[in-house]
Write a structure and sequence with these properties.
about 160 residues; 2 domains; two-stranded parallel ribbon; two-stranded antiparallel ribbon; 6 helices; about 50% helix
């Protein structure tokens, strides 16, 4: 997950995961930090960290999947870490009242919008960085320093 930092992680086919593993995976994904490990010399290795939004595109609600594990209770923390967005069984996120809905026109508009906006945010970000290179370098340096301070503070709490 550290490789997916600052992006969305879309999970499909949630029904394929073992319900016992799903709860632990929800906590790990939402907590943003991997397991702490030791090096061969018994010093702490830096833990992987990440920030991401997890979205399930599966058919089964998370709560229903977690309830399949009869040996464990579903915890509120698990449900708070991945929200279920209710959708209509027949019409998905579009709801049940589709009297004036033209599926073909909607699909054509989605294709037009995707073709006209593809990659635009990244191009703008790159142009801004190049235009303000000194500022970007300073921001990156300050961000790395702040992350190091947070990491050291966390490691001090763990080893205390």
């Amino acid at each position: 997950m550290a490789g997916a930092c600052d992006v969305g992680l879309v999970i499909d086919e949630i029904g394929q995961i073992d319900e016992r593993e799903l709860g632990a995976a929800l906590y790990m994904a939402a907590n943003g930090v991997g397991k702490q490990r030791m090096r061969a010399d018994a010093t702490l290795r830096e833990a992987y960290t990440w920030r991401l939004l997890v979205l399930s595109s599966g058919e089964d609600p998370i709560e229903a999947k977690l309830h399949q594990d009869k040996k464990r209770n579903v915890r509120a923390g698990q449900l708070a870490r991945m929200l279920d967005v209710p959708v209509s069984r027949d019409n998905g996120a579009f709801g049940d009242d589709l009297t004036d809905f033209d599926g073909g026109a909607f699909a054509a508009e989605c294709m037009r919008a995707a073709a006209s906006a593809y990659g635009m945010a990244w191009a703008g970000i790159c142009a801004e960085i190049v235009h303000n290179l000194a500022h970007a370098r300073r921001e990156c340096s300050e961000g790395r320093s702040a992350q190091r301070r947070r990491r050291l503070h966390w490691q001090d709490r763990v080893t205390a």
